[in-house]
Design brief:
The protein is of the alpha+beta class. The chain contains ten helices and 13 strands. The protein has two domains: 185 residues, 2-Layer Sandwich (Ribosomal Protein S5, domain 2), CATH 3.30.230.10; 131 residues, Alpha-Beta Plaits (2-Layer Sandwich). Helix 7 runs antiparallel to helix 8.
Length: 324
């Protein structure tokens, strides 16, 4: 039997960075996914191949590869996930795992979370486990700890359940039922960023200007709560205006960049209702809110400005599995 699982990526709509200081963040699943296919081997080895140019075989603790610099480090989370499932389900076998992803890596679109979730779902079903969504989220944590050290659980949760979630440190994760579509164009600057360094830079600014940054953080929280209300109404025009304000706050926090600002500006000129960076900043991606008919124009404006455009939309479908 061959099992395939698909899990969506994500984008942060509001609240990045300020969520570190207790304010809420809104995250949506997008219709870009990671597919993981798993099948048993006759031996006990773990062979992994990816369309992103990484492949190799774990033979016990030894790793062999013929392709892709850094393959072992990149593929180690898959090994961690497999071993977590073997231990939990008290079953073990050799596996061939094939990964097909259309989510760019290291740009804030949740690629590692989607990969962890899809891997858990595919191997779990292959081993005969009927995992609940809650169990899938829990089992995907070990590999995410390897990637992000102290993950909040946002990425695994949104990839497992899909839709829209709100997260805050005090209240955890809650799901929002949003009927309206959220059409966006993602603009990838092609610049990978260091999330830890950017979070640290905001902390330093907060220590340098405590009163100003506290007010900025509280304003961001108020803005996100307003965005929750606007999302429920399905008012895209107001949502776009709030995104513009949120971007101004992120600029003030010091996490935007010349490349991000350029893509935001051209997206707005191309017809976006609002645009902002998403994720850590310093590189990575912007998101531009669009009317359905404007997305191609916005995408072309981003491409002309040197970015890589991705047309996307909210998806309510989380992780799914099937056999062949």
């Amino acid at each position: 039997m061959i099992v395939t699982a698909s899990a969506p990526g994500k984008t942060i709509l509001f609240g990045e960075h300020f969520v570190v200081y207790g304010e809420p963040a809104i995250v949506i699943a997008i219709d870009r996914d990671v597919k993981v296919t798993a099948e048993r081997r006759d031996d006990s080895n773990l062979h992994i191949s990816s369309n992103l140019g990484f492949s190799g075989t774990f033979i016990g603790e030894r790793f062999e590869t013929e392709e892709g610099d850094g393959s072992e480090k990149t593929l180690e989370p898959i090994k961690i996930t497999a071993e977590t499932l073997f231990q939990t389900l008290k079953k073990k076998c050799g596996l061939n795992i094939t990964i097909k992803s259309n989510i760019p890596i290291a740009v804030g679109l949740g690629s590692s979370g989607a990969l962890a979730v899809a891997t858990v779902a595919a191997i779990g079903r292959l081993l005969g486990a009927n995992l609940t969504r809650e169990e899938i989220v829990k089992l995907s944590f070990e590999s995410e700890k390897y990637v992000h050290l102290n993950p909040s659980g946002i990425d695994q949760t949104i990839s497992t359940y899909g839709g829209v979630i709100v997260y805050s440190k005090s209240e955890g994760i809650s799901h929002m039922k949003i009927e309206s579509s959220i059409p966006i164009v993602i603009g990838n600057t092609r610049i990978q960023r260091n999330t830890g360094r950017l979070v640290d830079s905001v902390r330093i600014r907060k220590e340098t200007f405590p009163q100003l940054m506290t007010q900025l953080t509280q304003t961001a929280g108020q803005l996100t709560r307003e965005a929750i209300s606007v999302l429920k109404k399905g008012d895209l025009k107001q949502l776009g205006e709030l995104m513009d304000i949120n971007q101004g706050l992120l600029v003030s926090a010091g996490v935007s960049s010349e490349e991000l600002d350029r893509l935001i500006n051209v997206a707005k000129k191309g017809g976006a209702l609002g645009a902002k960076l998403t994720g850590a900043g310093g590189g990575g991606c912007i998101i531009a809110l669009s009317k359905i008919g404007k997305r191609k124009e916005i995408a072309e404006a981003i491409r002309t400005a040197g970015g890589i455009p991705l047309i996307a939309e909210k998806t309510d479908e989380g992780v799914t599995t099937w056999t062949s």
